[in-house]
Model the fold of this input.
Amino acid sequence: MRKVSIVGAGMTRFGEHWETSFRDLIVEAGVKALTDAQMPGQDVQAIFGGCMASSRFIAQEHIGSLIADQVGLKPIPSTRCEAACASGGVALHSGWLAIASGRYDVVVVGGVEKMTEIGTSRAALALGGAGDQEWELFNGASFPSIYALMACRHMHDYGTTEEQMASCAVKNHANAVNNEYAQYRKKITIEQVMNSGYVASPLKLFDCSPLTDGAAAVVLCASEKARKYSDAPVEIFSTSQASGTLSLASRSSFTSIDATRVAARDAFDHARLTPKDVDVAEVHDCFTIAEIMAIEDLGFFKKGEGGKVSEEGRTALNAEISVNTSGGLKACGHPVGATGVKQAVEITWQLRGEAGKRQVNGAEIGLTHNVGGSGGTAVVNLYKRGD
Amino acid sequence: MKDALPLIWRRSKERYRLLGNRCQSCNQAYYPSRKICSKCRRASKLVPEEMPKKGKVISFTQVFSAPEGFENEAPYFLALIELDNGVIILSQIVDSPSERIVIGAPVKMVFRRVFEDGSQGAIAYGFKFKVE
Done:
């Protein structure tokens, strides 16, 4: 297997883009990534694009062709990857394999979602498709309620509190203040989260990531040729994807996501590293309880301590481990298909020392963690500055 | 889900009677039923089996922001329920005082209307649970 590096990264602002179309978003992100790599378009040999539910959000399929066409790169192969909210992560994993295998030298990986074209209840239904349509949605389960069931059990088993969950949202909003691409660039307080009203108890509105439009892209290159395009390539030196059951009820645990644990163990084993080696991590906080479970399942903290350590500030910027410096899904926004790629963009900036006021001091090892649905898919990647 | 008549028809027995199945090779029970056993795969021997109609709550939530089709029912309770044979299912909890909906609460299955496809479409029936 060949080594694979990121030589270019770019993204659109995340938020409500009523004035911009789906295709314009993905073109903007792609052009920014290629410009960052100072790479002529003809060097790109393949495209992998993450997109969850374009058919539900904008009634458009065949996204692979749409992207290649709109960025002017036809006839190269262009493939859509779908794994609900992990679509971007799976696209990244697929693009990585395409280069590592030796088939291509340069691949662009993009992610995109345009979620505000339809109303909130229809959007909720579309996102619910990440779960089990026949046995979860049929019975009235919404996506927040699936995570609420995990939160309720986590509180019961480990004494996690609503205030501890709220502290994740407060921390992520504080990080987003310094991210010009973030959807919500304002601080919030524990009290505001606590008073934001239940969506599905114990989760309140400010425990939930928003509906977002946005796109992100990275240019992947065989590491041996990366210096041709970048003075500061970022190597993805380990990537792992795992599957879990589609429905929550079929799981062996409701306070942990098996697919995350499997992918993390595999990624760390391949890299011969431990979770302690990670300086900066973008984890999948679609809900605050998801961040708490993530920092436990990834091995940063012991099972059951995620709420407590979040409240103590140990995951804040430049604390013990900097988690979700971009603002995470909560405050940077969560255009579902784009999120897994955006995480890689943020880590690239962090490892290149370009993250401005949210820069993690001396960041050398980065991690991204992208989850589909309630844990049906998980992708964990490890990054370091290239040779 | 709208326009889901074949799905409603196909799953009716499973939903009305909690009909799942069990693998005779490894004794694992499934609800909903599976075509092959996840453990034994092609060596599985699955036979239909009705699940027990009683169990206990292992987690719950009260849904305030309902997905399309359930707006009129909000707020409503949703729970993970461990049936007496150990199988875990997701169901609504109805007809129960909210203070009694707690982890560990004993529940039993009731037959209820689950989903209406607008004023003209099919009505889907199935299980919900209530606290005993």
User: Anything to note?
Assistant: The interface with chain B takes residues 121-122, 124-125, 128, 133-142, 144-145, 148-153, 156, 197-203, 247-250, 254 of chain A (CB under 8 Å). The first strand of chain A starts at residue 4 and ends at 11. The mean pLDDT of chain A is 97. Residues 22-37 of chain A form the longest helix (16 residues).
